Amino acid sequence: MDLSHRTILITGATDGIGKVLAVEFSKLGSNIILLGRDASKLDTVYDQLDHSFKSQKHLILQADLSLLNNESAHEIHNAIAEEFISLDGIIHNAAILGTMTTLEDYELSRWDEVLNVNLRAPFLLTKTLKTILETSMLPRIIFTSSGVANMGRAFWGAYSVSKFGLKGLAEIFANELETTSSIKVFNFDPGATQTKMRASARPAENPNTLKTPSDLVNCYLWFFSEESSDSKQHYFEYADLSKKVTAT
Question: CB-based contacts of 230: which residues, under 8 Å, 6+ apart?
């Protein structure tokens, strides 16, 4: 798949799924905008990106999404607009787990931090970057869902609430943009995957029984394909989408 001249913003790009997507999409010619809060990790991932395409250009944006507000969101918009003619996609990958505890014992400061990173930041970035996305020929927004977005589970607290909210946010954006914009909105549940967050949430689980972030790449590539333009479905789970991708 040729993704040359496509510019894609990936949040949470320094680890796990975000890092793998950044590296693999760059190999296909994409310009990658890495957004994360750890400068050292951002530099490390930047060095791993493919730089062989003549027109290829990558960008680092250091930002703490827990502190994102209107002003800093517009700074991100301006930084992208200064470097690129258009933005072809946003992969909202960044998320934090928070505390695995009862709601009664959940600290408000930690609650706010999780909701800010997992829900407030994707809302602010999407609404702020909408105008530059609309200059793309095939603009895409991909939100990252979770199994705890469908049914509340004890001890998952703010993380589960944020994913419930994100699912609703994605549905509303998809509905509002369906007839007024060329932007396609998708919400993807990658399922159980070998990540640091998964290990923190389920420390007794054997990671070797789980798929790796690399196993998800073809699913994300499908979202950026011509084929996905005709999709009326907005929410996908890995088990179903991987079969669809394999079949095509």
Answer: none
Q: Read off the pLDDT band of 1 (50, 70, 90).
A: confident
pLDDT digits (tens, 9 = 90+) for 119-162: 999 999 999 999 999 999 999 999 999 999 998 899 999 999 99
| In a domain? residue 22 | yes
Q: What is the pLDDT of residue 45?
A: 97
Tokens standing for 95?
């998320």
Q: What CATH code is carried by the domain that includes residue 48?
A: 3.40.50.720
**Based on the structure, what is the number of domains in the chain?**
1
Residues with catalytic roles: 159
Look at residue 32 and tell me if it is in a domain.
Answer: yes
Q: What is the DSSP letter of 114?
A: H
Is 2 contained in some domain?
A: no
Locate tokens 């994707």: which residue?
Answer: 122
> Do the domain assignments include residue 1?
no
Task: List the domain range (segments joined by +) for residue 74.
Answer: 7-247
Question: What mean pLDDT is predicted for residues 91-115?
Answer: 97
Q: What sign for the dihedral angle of Cα 167, 198, 237, 228?
A: positive
Distance CA 173, CA 160 (A): 20
Average pLDDT score over residue span 186-214: 93
- A 10 A CB-CB count for 14 gives 23
